[in-house]
Amino acid sequence: MVLLICLSLVSCRRDRIDVVPGPIGRVTLAASAVDLPVGGSAVIEFQLAGAELGEVSLRLRDGGEPQEFRLTGVSEGVSPGVFFANISDSGVSGAYSREVCLVAGGAASDYICVNCGQPGFPRAVDTGLPVVFVTTDGGRTPESKGMAVDAVFSVRGGGGCGDMSPHSCSLRGRGNTSWRWEKKPYRVEFRDRVPVLGMPSHGHWVLLAGFSDRTMMRNLVAMRVSSLTSLRWTPRCVPVELVLNGRHVGNYLLTEQVEVDPCRVDVSAEGFLLELDFHFDNERQWMDPHGLSRYSVGIPFAVRYPAPDELSAEAFESVKQYVAAAADALYSEGFADPDSGYARWLDVDSFVDYWLVFEILGNPELSNPASVFFHKDAGGKLVAGPCWDFDCCLRQLGTSVQDLAGILNRYGIWYMRLFRDPAFGRRVRERFLELLPALESVPDYIEQCRQLLAASAELNFAMWNPAEDRWQNKGLLINGDELLGFGDAVAQLREVYLQRLELLKKNI
Fold first, then answer.
1. Which has the closest alpha carbon to 107: 57, 67, 43?
2. Does residue 32 fall inside a structural domain?
3. Which of 67, 330, 355, 395 sits at a 20 to 30 Å CA gap from 210?
């Protein structure tokens, strides 16, 4: 005999859905498999057509009720007829894989495979990468960047990383252009500081979707290059599989977020963190009239630290005055003087290495500033960095005039003026040659990433098509490799990297 579980169902439109038997309808599941973390929960999305919801239950193929996991709630989605069934691991078994159907409205769905257990047991997702499980309350996902939903976060280890037990968190949307894609990037905010996948403890993390990147490694390679320099901090990151509410949604890059913290951008309470970004969508921001950007009126600066609610009007004005003083010195007649010129205000070595990272990787966003960061400690000089957001680096050569010329960022922001100082140009070339032996090892790292990501790429691109990025770029591909297979795209990335090194040997 099948035991039907009667539930009080919470709706976003009314406090309670009455359980009223209705005519038999059709139950359609949104997925054929769900990964259930040990001791955790997941969500099964389903659609009910032609019937009242009525009683809801889970049923095994033999007609029995599953013991390893249980139905703990059902919530109503925003779209008519869409519901979310929450299931939770009962903690009574180790590894298991069970097929179960969902019974609602007098009808049963197709069977869905519920997997839970130890590494090596049959899983819905097994690419060798860590699997991140995020299960939100009611199966909701953020519908805007400002929306946060409560969630539980856990990790099944892989690739040398250990497991992570379930932790409460909130899930938010993030990004500008990337938020418009169907494959969404997210911010994860824990209630406490926790270490994740071997990275230092913190409360804030980012899941980058990398939708337009056919190689799935542009940010990995960029952070590798950044780590070879003397820049003070480079975000650590780990490629993962993301299972959101029980559904595998592809390859993501779990990374540290750019923010002030002793284990990230380490500045004192009296210091500040700046972002230069043409989107101009921060709360405390201004245009500095010096330098070049896409704006004829100057460069878009914003204060990212201190936070807007902690930044007084006086402190904000002080930050602006420091930036203005640095720019005044840079554009003064004696700007190259090592004592009274720009070197009094800028940490020149950091500005050299920061420029080299962007230029080696063919990232033009110093010229059209987006996700460009500077920071300053109390009593210190303005420091360039950290590096962030290299989704569109190492593009196929020939996609722009700057690519063909070899140098992309000589005239970007303050660098046009810096390169007017012959000493700065010499310093850049000397530093490039000093770094060259380490830079020439990066193709080996690209090959390591190819091997690591190959299985993940097969699953990811069965779900997502990077060529859809054309609708945001006037019908043109962004990176130039979106129509290639994963292996060919990686080979092209490696070739473009080597070409960049050769171009810089000749042009700086």
1. 57
2. yes
3. 355
Beta-bridge mates of residue 134: 153, 244
Secondary structure of residue 180 in the 3-state scheme: helix
Identify the domain boundary among 225, 256, 287: 256
Tell me the pLDDT tens digit for each residue of 156-175: 887 788 889 889 999 999 98
> Pairing between strand 382-384 and 285-288?
unpaired
What single letter denotes the amino acid at residue 473?
N
Number of separate domains in the chain: 2
**168 plus 110 within the same structural domain:** no
Please give the Cα distance from 145 to 282 (Å, whole number): 13
Does residue 96 sit in the same domain as residue 185?
no
Q: Are residues 76 and 170 in the same domain?
A: no
- Judge whether 153 and 276 are in contact, CB under 8 Å: no
Does 135 share its domain with 112? no
68 and 93 in contact (C-beta within 8 Å)? Answer: yes
User: At 89, which CATH number?
Assistant: 2.60.40.10
36-67 residues labelled b (16+ CB within 10 A) or e (exposed) = bbbebbbbbbbbbeebbbbbbbbbeeeeeebe
Q: Give the pLDDT confidence of 183-234 residue by residue, as tens digits.
A: 999 999 999 999 999 999 999 999 999 999 999 999 999 999 999 999 999 9
120-145 residue pLDDT tens: 444 568 899 999 999 998 888 998 88
494 phi and psi angles, rounded to 5 deg: -60, -45
Q: How confident is the model at residue 295 (pLDDT cuts 50, 70, 90)?
A: very low
In this structure, is residue 196 part of a structural domain? Answer: yes
214: in domain: yes
Q: In 79-185, where do the E strands start and end? A: 82-89, 96-104, 107-108, 112-116, 131-136, 148-156, 164-173
User: Which of the listed residues 82, 116, 150 is the one where a domain comes to its end?
Assistant: 116
